[in-house]
Amino acid sequence: MFPTFTGSSRRPRNVDLSGQRKTNPWANSSWAPTQSGASKTVAQAQAERERRHREREELAATKRLQKIWRGHRDRRDLRDLRRQEYDALYRHPILPQNARQRIEQAFPLLLAILVPTRSDDQQRLDLFISDLLGLSPSPSVPVDFPGLGLLSPFAWDRLARLLVRALEQRDEGSSQTLLITAANLVKQRPASIKPVLKQYYLVLARFAGENSFISSSTGQGRILSEAVVAPLAPDSDSGDLHSSTYRTFAYTFLTSPHLSFLQRRPETIAQFLDLGALSQSIIHAFSTPEFLKNVVGDDLLWLLAHFVALNRAVPASRGSRYLEALYLQMSFLASDIRSRSNSQEKDDEYESDPDEDIEIHDFAPLPEYVIDQLGFLVNEDGIADLLNRFASIASTTNHISEDTSLLAGYTLVLLRCFPSHGDDIKMRLFQGDIQTVDGESNSTPPSVRFFWEAASKTDIFTTIVQQAKTKEKSVSVPALLKQDPIHDLEWRTLLLFLELYNFLLRVTDDEDFLPRETDIAIQQSQATQRIRASSLNLDELKLLVNFLKHLSFPLYYNLSDIVRSKPTSERLDAMMGVNTARSNLGNAKDAPSSIAGITGIDVLGLRDVASSAMRALYERDSRRPFLPKDFWLMTGKFDMGVFISAVVLEELRNDELSDEDEEEERDEGNPSASSHNFAGDWLTRSTDRRRLRPTHSEEFRSTIGPKLEVLRNMPFAIPFEVRVQVFRQFVHLDKNKRRGGHVDPDRWRLAILSGEDGPNGPTAFRRQYLGRHTATVGRGRVFDDAFEQFYPLGEGLKEPIQITFVDQFDQPEAGIDGGGVTKEFLISVTNDAFGPERNGDHTYFVSNNQNLLYPNPSIFDDIAAKLRNRGIAEGGDGWRDVMGDLVKRYEFLGRIVGKCMYEGILIDISFASFFLLKWASSGQSTSTDYRASLNDLRDLDPELYQGLMGLKNYPGDVADLSLDFTIADSVWDPSGHRRTITRPLRKDGASLPVTNKDRPLYISYVANHRLVAQQYRQTKAFLRGLGTIINPSWLSMFNQSELQRLIGGDSSEIDVEDLRRNTSYSGLYAIGDDGQEHPTICFFWDVMRKLKDSERRDVLKYVTSTPRAPLLGFSQLKPQFSIRDGGTDEERLPSTSTCVNLLKLPVYKTAATLRAKLLYAVQSGAGFDLS
Q1: What is the pTM of this model?
Q2: Looking at the annotation, which residues are catalytic?
Q3: pLDDT band at 8, cuts 50/70/90?
Q4: Which letter does DSSP use for residue 1012 in this model?
Q5: Which of 173, 528, 575, 857 could crosslink 524 through cysteines, CB 3.0-4.6 Å?
Q6: Could you tell me how many helices (H) and strands (E) the chain has, helices first?
């Protein structure tokens, strides 16, 4: 088309203004093709036929409407005539003996005229019912309707259904006589209202919530009760009818939330019910897929609450059907109950951190009545009732394994529904005995022993243990996890045993774990006797540990193979812990697979439970060995020759995936946010911030790093020395990645300044970046200066730092930081921060009687008391600033300790075991955190530990001690003395006395408060800082004692020859071309060999500031141990520069002189200086 063209290509319309009809078929104004004459004629004929057909249909419809209207008018008129006839029958009173005749005449008329929505018809019905009830010889005697012989059975059935329709239109005040009649009719003919049974129970549900029935006399309540149970009378003609009636009763009546009458007096209905049939109807309904599709709202919650209430009202045992019905309902509602009940639990004041974001879920709270009924299931009476029912089942059935599994499954669902009551549930079960029948003998073992015997006899347990004994390369755990009815029964029993045994380990101290045979039983309290009766012996422990090791190993190492058979969406739901039961109502095939057939317990849940028990046993064995050496090792599962290189490769892959995740997050968010790491712009593009939260699913991570998963969660399977090497390799990889291949500090700084990866060379911005890694620190204020200058670095503290020490006059001290000053700085910071007194400042860490450090439990309470004393409003800006600064200081302390570990610098600081256990648990894959135990309390407060031990072994009634579930904490007071404040250990703890039964639970709560709750914010901040420098998953490779060795070195005997091989010499002592050592050096090593190990440690601490050797030998000591001459004056003492691990040794002529001078210098602490 030409650009100068301005016209339109559209053809103009051909408009004929003549008014004449077009005769030219070709004169068409549009471009559409025209029809030929023949086709146009056919189209017109077809349209004409359609018009005539439409007219005929309209005529036929009109005739039908007229016919219907005429029929309706005739029936209305006929009904009005019959109403007149009916009214004539009741216009005048009659004698009682004529009532039967009037009933016979009125009943056909009533069936023909009754329209329940008309009030006058309702009045006519009342007249007829009055005649019927008048036939009874006494008001208390119900009328025998079929026995009257007045009407046919089918007529009575029609009357019953009419009564239900009439009751639908009435309120409770005018329905009493109709309700009595309907109840009597239905009681005598239960099948009469089958077509309207649902409407019948809907009416009764409405009446049950009305005030007149709630507040009325017992007689009216009896009427309603009889009406409710009337259709439930056994029908000899049809068992199916009886079952369907109970189902309608359950899912129409019991699902109503307005059954105030039932909720106040459940016994009035329960006494007439066949609760076994009710349980069976619920079981049948839950096995019907179509049923679940019709469930709406909270119907099932109300059904569950009313079902529990009815069974509570009749305490007699109903066998296993009650337990199974309860189990099915709780399983289906588990996620709903868990989320909505947890939203009502008040968080512990220690368990919240104001600095972190809290995700708030908008869950509607459970109704109060539902809470009350569900609360019964987890309280002492409910658990006792559960065990009593089970004891009856076990003593009357030969299928004890199925019943045991049912009890286990129900208890597991309880634990899932009420995690906040988990300890209470386990405590009640732990205290219970289970009566069993074996032939003609009865026994009542403790519940833990009962489930151990049941679990250890399962095919799953024996298969795994036998394959472990034969040292097969792969135990067939994946095959055992496949859905199978028999395996489901066994997995439930195993899971409950592990849950109970985990609880038992928490309340068992070392003395009761493997008691000596010399202990006298008569001196034990009931609590101690219960614990020892429930414990396993050494042979059983070996079996259990073997089972747990070989069960957990494939759940970490082969997780991807185990879950590979699931569809992707189901695997993601399982990994995220999503319960898709609600979204897949009625379609069992689409629901995600679960372990033991329990919704919400999947492979990861099984792994968590097994891992918790395994780690608890491992921690106890680490603290007080009871298993043979190397019993925990599983090196046969790996090719140890290439293990380290394989793990390093997996870590590299893991880092690559983490980097990809972070890049995706930046692409979705603000790309400029990544500029915080300036060095990464030149050195490497992969030096972005490492997230402390996982970014991949457990399945995906196990696919790329199965060995890493084993190291994180089962570190004992690999020898300690190998794990230390892996740790150092991980640190080296991280340094290499962050520093762009320039691990050496000086080369890294040079690379930054020269801008090797940048085009413009050094810039002020680069110098500014290096300046952020430089600090000027004064003696006496090392920690405060370090915090102010290095806290903003965050993860950047991993990079090399430069320190300049200044004296009291702010004059720089002599010395060049070649790595030694950095070591001196880090050691000085730790000595300052971890010291018991900081010039009257805050004491961040306190020590026990063994000088083991742990976070100061009362520091936040003390500062809060001081702020209140100064009039600072709680929650205000000033309050948040002070508390936030304290959190930051704990976080910075964690970074400093992490920096020492990162650089391989040993520090002479020992932490309490329970505190180190929290380090190890911070990087594990499982959801279980550190759980306090009574034994850990010994490291925190020996006096409190002894007091609790006395309470545990107290032979009398603990109630006499007037203890309750509260604890007293000591806080600062303006008077200069400390005062105590009382805190509850559990909800309403002040009103809950401690009894003999819940004594172990009280001890557990006290231990948890002291070890976890009171130190929660301090520990969390410290671990957050530590995790910034040291990946938490690396820390999880070690137990508490191994972590202490990683921090402060090996406590084994000093290897003098290893130290000699890794010592450098300078000055006069430098080794010449002949390769011979200086005579004084020879004297030194002769003296070191002859010293006692304690004296060698003193020498080592004198030179390096720590008395222990590095874990992998002195070749790992940074800087290297070195000796140089300190002059020729033999009167001088040896001196050191600890920052560079340098011993300045004067030239001594004899070994005796050297020994005397060396020991004197070491023991007096003289000679520390900077060179």
Answers
A1: 0.78
A2: 1139
A3: low
A4: I
A5: 528
A6: 51, 12
